Amino acid sequence: MATPSVNTISMLDSNMEVDKLTYEIFSILENKFLFGYDDTKNTVTKKETNLSTPFTENKKVNTGKVRILSIDASGSTDGVLAAKSLTHLETTLRQKTGKPDAHIADFFDVVAGSGTGGILAGLLFTRGNDGVPLFTTKQALEFIVENGRKISRSSKTGIFRHVYRPTKVFKKVFGDLTLKDTLKAVLIPCYDLKTGAPFVFSRADAWEMDGCDFTLADVCGATMADRAVDLQSVDGRTKITAVGGGIAMTNPTAAAVTHVLNNKQEFPFANGVEDLLVVSLGNGDSDSGTGNMTSSPATFVKIAGDGTADMVDQAVSMAFGQTRNNNYVRIQGNGIVGKKYQMIKEENKNKSERMKKMVVIAEEMLGQKNVECVLFQGKKLVENSNLDKLKIVASELIKEQERRKTSILPPVVLKHASPSPRTSSATTLSSVSSC
User: Fold this and answer.
1) CA dihedral 296, 301, 306, 310 (to 10 degrees)
2) Could you give the CA distance from residue 74 to residue 118 in angstroms, rounded to a whole number?
3) What is the enclosing helix (H) or strand (E) of 139?
């Protein structure tokens, strides 16, 4: 048997050291995520302290927080819950700043919306002819209430189901406006049947590659689709077969956070969750558990979507750790909302009337104590109501807005036309299918 050479032994020792360091790094990351690990002294190598020094020194420069708004796909409330929350938030921001014409888009850098959440994102963050957002939150709420029946993914069932074409409704609102016409970073998901993976419509990708720019009417139609919808990019080079965003990702918060932390061109100083301020709007509990559950595919999609939304909420909340109370806010209803909605469905078959009554229920939801998801512990009620949380987060948004007026370093640098096209891996989760 040949004796190992000196070089071989040296290589083995080197590999062992690398494996040892790799194991330690992943152990620290795992403990930091699950248990809030912060003991920098308990390390195998002393080099880690030196490596972390530049990051510690950089923290002395206050570069502010990137403000993210995430809106879940619609549940039983058809987006009314989220729209009503945004109406209260915008009203509070206007009162606190003394600016009656302020828009919700003025106080957020990123918006991610799925299903009806994607529609709200489009209405509130798309530039109109006068340079301001197309809709105020009040107008967006009215749009959801008045057009809920036309844009609903499951307004009727069975062979007599009336086939609505929601894209026509969106076409009247957005015309030929595209993702490039949005004011801030916009992320709206759907599921691409061609690639069998989520596809996220992204403003950043649209500016980098014409093949990723879609009309907003098509984007909203895709994220609301309950059946396959074929659409193509503005230049006709990219084609996808989409179904709703609720299938792809009911809760798009994690996608929004991933986009920000990996997009250094637009968010150069966002290195971790401590550099973010996230407002996540849920849709209340589904009515699938109120005793009138059917075995339709739409019902199972709702159940799976509700469960996924809670899982994302728990994971994101845990990732924020000790900064959760200041940097992550989740607005979510509890079982009362779903039960009352079911009663309205049984008492009144007119969907227009149901939607209007849902506005009243949404108002009641805002007065409820907030429901919080805790990883491995389930849901719990906290002291603050949803309305209290909206008021608190309004103050934080204004504080960041004021800080930026005197800041030398901008925390957000939105991209425009790029000389070298590059697909953003943080937003386009599926490969681009070109003809």
Assistant:
1) 150
2) 9
3) helix 137-151
- Whose tokens are 């005197």? That residue is 406
Q: Are 182 and 125 in contact (CB under 8 A)?
A: yes
Assign 3-class secondary structure to 360-371.
HHHHHHHHCEEE
Name the band, by pLDDT with cuts 50, 70 and 90, for residue 286. very low
- Least Cα distance to 86 among 66, 99, 64, 102 occurs for 102
Can you tell me the distance from the alpha carbon of 110 to that of 84, in angstroms, rounded to the nearest whole number? 19
pTM of structure: 0.77
- Residue ranges of alpha helices (H) inside 283-334 are 297-320, 324-327
Return d(Cα 384, Cα 390) in angstroms, integer: 10
| Residue 423, CB-side half-sphere exposure with 13 Å CA sphere | 13
CA dist., res. 396 & res. 410, Å (int):
17
Q: pLDDT digit string (tens) for 81-97?
A: 899 999 999 999 999 99
Spatial distance between the Cα atoms of 231 and 210, rounded to a whole number of angstroms: 15
Q: Which positions ≥6 away from 55 have C-beta within 8 Å?
A: 271
The sign one gets for the Cα dihedral 31, 33, 37, 38 is: positive
233 in Cβ contact with 210 (< 8 Å): yes
Annotated catalytic residues are: 114
Helix (H, G, I), strand (E, B) or coil at 263: coil
